[in-house]
C-alpha cells in the first residue's frame, strides 16, 4: 500500500529528527536519570564502581535542613541571579537604545561602538574573572590606585575579600562580561520596529517617554522575555564567576549552589549528596521555567520571536 505524501513527509521528518533525539537522550536524559539515582545513595567518589547504599531521601533532607541552606539559597537566588540578571537587562536595554539613537548614528561610529561593545562578551569568563581580580587587587589593582589617587579612599580596599564589597564585585564581573549579548540582541529587535509608528506617535503629541512605553517597549517585550529566561538559567547554574573570583569565600560567604556541589563532590567526595543538590537545582529551574512561560505566555512569545 502506497503511503500518502503527508505520511511520507512525517516519516522523513521522524528520521531527520531521530539523530537529534538520540543526542538528547545520550547527553541529557541519561545523565539526569543517573544523577537522580545517585542522589538516593550514600555513594562517594571512591565508590563509583562499587556503588553505594540506598539512603532514600536522606541526602535531600540533610541539604534542605542544613544550617547553610538559607545562605546558599539567598546567595544564588538574590545576588547571583536576581540582581545580576536585572542589571544585565536594564543596562543592555540602555546600551541598545543609545546605539539605536540618532545621536550615535550621527557620529558615524556605529561599527566601532558595536565592536567595542562586543569585546567584553567575546572575552572568555575565565579570562574576564582573572582580569577583574587584577583590577580589584588591593596592592597593585588599577581600581584601588585610581581611588587612592583621587582621594576617594585612604587605604586600599580588598574588594574580593571584604563582606561589604565582595558580592557587588562579583556582580560587576558578571554584568560586564554578559551585558553586551543582551544589548546586541535588543539592538537587533529595535531595528525591526517600523519608524512609521514613532512618527505617528509623535504627530499625535506623544512624548519621548510615551513613545518608548507604548510603542517601543511592547515590541521589545518578547525579546526581553526570552533573554531574561536564558540569562536566569545561565546565571543560576554558573560556577565560574564565584569560584574563580573568591573560591566561595571569604569563608563560605559567597557560596552558591554550583560551588556547593563542587565542594561536596570533590572536597568531601560525597557524590550522592552533591547529586541531590543538582536535582534540587534542576527542579527549581524547571518550576521557574514553567511559571515564567505561564506568566509571559509561551505561545505569544513563540509567535512574536519566531
Features:
about 300 residues, mainly alpha, MetI-like fold, 14 helices, about 0% strand, flat
Overall description:
The chain is mostly helical. The protein has one domain: Orthogonal Bundle (MetI-like fold). It has helices spanning 5-38, 58-64, 69-99, 102-106, 110-122, 125-136, 142-150, 166-190, 195-203, 208-236, 240-246, 257-267, 271-296, 298-305. Helix 10 (208-236) packs antiparallel against helix 13. The chain is flat. The mean pLDDT is 89.
Annotate the secondary structure layout.
Elements: H1 5-38, H2 58-64, H3 69-99, H4 102-106, H5 110-122, H6 125-136, H7 142-150, H8 166-190, H9 195-203, H10 208-236, H11 240-246, H12 257-267, H13 271-296, H14 298-305
Helix pairs in contact: 1-13, 3-8, 3-10, 5-8, 6-8, 6-11, 8-10, 8-11, 9-10, 10-13, 10-14, 12-13
Structure class: mainly alpha
Overall average pLDDT = 89
Order of helices and strands: HHHHHHHHHHHHHH
Shape: flat
How much strand content do the residues show?
A: under 5%
Low-confidence stretches: none
CATH fold topology: MetI-like fold
Helix content: over 70%
Largest β-sheet summary: none
Q: How many H/I helical runs?
A: 14
Q: What's the CATH architecture? A: Orthogonal Bundle
What is the distance, rounded to the nearest whole angstrom, between the alpha carbons of the first and last residues? Answer: 38 Å
The CATH class turns out to be Mainly Alpha
What is the CA-based Rg, rounded? 24 Å
How many strand segments? Answer: 0
CATH homologous superfamily placement: MetI-like
Please tell me the total number of domains. 1
